[in-house]
Write a structure and sequence with these properties.
Layout lengths: L2 H80 L4 H82 L4 H12 L6 E5 L2 E2 L8 H9 L12 E3 L6 E2 L2 E2 L7
Parallel strand pairs: 1-3
Antiparallel strand pairs: 1-2, 4-5
Helix pairs in contact: 1-2
Length: 250
């Protein structure tokens, strides 16, 4: 096998490991952001319930004030009614008293509705506060764990990048430039084994002459379709010198 290709197989393996770790590093902050977003929604819901409870209590106080005001007016009207000179005046006072009594009954009915609503809101707030406290603790713990995980993954990635650099300098300048050029275009597989007469990268049939040259020489050959660097020897083991052609680590 061509020595440059042997090293490129290693480099491509490093690139795959590096890409996997970069993807995980990128995904963890997004995952935490999504969790925090859901937490924020629950925080807003709790605030809405608390605000509704405060508004409910204010309405209760307003109604109590209205009821007290109606009762004071009724008391004054009863005093005035006792001093009525005519039957018409008496009936007028009585009518006003009935009006205020009806207003009191309506306010008391509304108070009952608000009390029932307040009970439900209080229950919601109590349950939501406990659930939110647990969720906040969970998010905090998960975020801390994610930070630890990112640190581990970055260390692994840095190690692979260091090993990649060490191997990359062993590759011929032109071959290295060609490999990096294809990688920069988003190609995941730049080095490919010929399997079943096909390029392992693009699955296009490789000419028999190319296959024979790969098997019998160490000539550097590339796929005529996708330009991947080709090799024909099954790679079953890799050591510091690259893929082993015998399946044994040397």
């Amino acid at each position: 096998m061509n020595e440059d290709v042997r090293h490129l197989v290693l480099i491509q393996g490093f690139d795959e490991e590096i890409a996997l770790r970069n993807a995980e590093i990128d995904s963890l902050p997004r995952h935490i952001a999504e969790i925090k977003k859901r937490l924020h929604v629950h925080q807003l819901q709790l605030k809405a319930d608390k605000d509704a409870l405060v508004a409910n209590q204010k309405q209760m106080r307003d109604l109590e004030g209205q009821i007290a005001d109606h009762k004071q007016k009724i008391a004054r009207l009863r005093d005035q009614m006792m001093q009525a000179k005519t039957n018409e005046q008496y009936k007028a006072f009585q009518h006003e008293i009935e009006f205020h009594e009806a207003a009191i009954r309506a306010a008391e009915d509304r108070e009952i509705e608000l009390m029932e609503s307040a009970e439900a809101l209080s229950g919601n707030v109590s349950v939501a506060e406990k659930a939110l406290a647990a969720e906040e603790a969970s998010v905090k713990a998960e975020a801390a764990e994610a930070e630890k995980r990112v640190a581990v993954i970055r260390a692994e990635r840095d190690q692979y990048e260091q090993e990649r650099t060490q191997v990359l300098v062993l590759v011929s300048r032109d071959v290295r430039a060609a490999y990096e050029a294809l990688k920069s275009r988003g190609r995941k597989q730049v080095v490919a084994q010929v399997e079943g007469g096909q390029c392992g990268a693009c699955r296009i049939t490789v000419r028999l002459q190319v296959i024979q040259e790969l098997a019998l020489t160490d000539k550097l050959l590339r796929c005529e379709n996708c330009l991947a660097f080709l090799y024909a020897v099954p790679v079953t083991a890799v050591d510091a010198h690259g893929p082993s052609e015998t399946g044994q680590v040397t």
